[in-house]
Design goal:
Strand order of the largest sheet: 1-2
CATH architecture of one domain: Orthogonal Bundle
CATH class of one domain: Mainly Alpha
CATH topology of one domain: 434 Repressor (Amino-terminal Domain)
Distance between the termini: 66 Å
Number of strands: 2
Mean pLDDT: 75
Shape: elongated
Low-confidence stretches: none
Radius of gyration: 22 Å
Amino acid sequence: MLRETLVADDGARVSQSEFGRRLGELLGKDWSRQAVWMAESGNRAFTAAELVAIAHVLNVPVGQLFDPPPHTSVVDLPTAQLPASELAFERISEFPEALQRKAIELYAEISQTQKHLRQVVEWAADDAQALDEGIKTVAALIALLSQTNSKEPE
């Protein structure tokens, strides 16, 4: 499916490098040409955030990424083949509007969380000792709050 979809708005095929760069803008790290090739060839698993980013870059509904290409009779899985006619595929654009909005909100939350986690990892890499001290401080505060909350009011 991905191979058939790597096409720009003007109909020209998007290069693997360009596609990887566009994904990087959303995911915080560019995909290499090899990673894009692995995805195109069906030899790569995806996170939910990656699927949403891929759909955004391709300007297609997320559900379309799950639709087999036209005239596909079977869908290959690592240990089996399933008849395409037996699979129920729905496009996100066919979901109720409220569900579509919620999916977009969740994607935004996931993206923001990933950004914060990357910042923490960068900070930790810069100062591992400070991270250890920060963890100890947070643990002490949690213990103190637990003790305070467990005391009954007099």
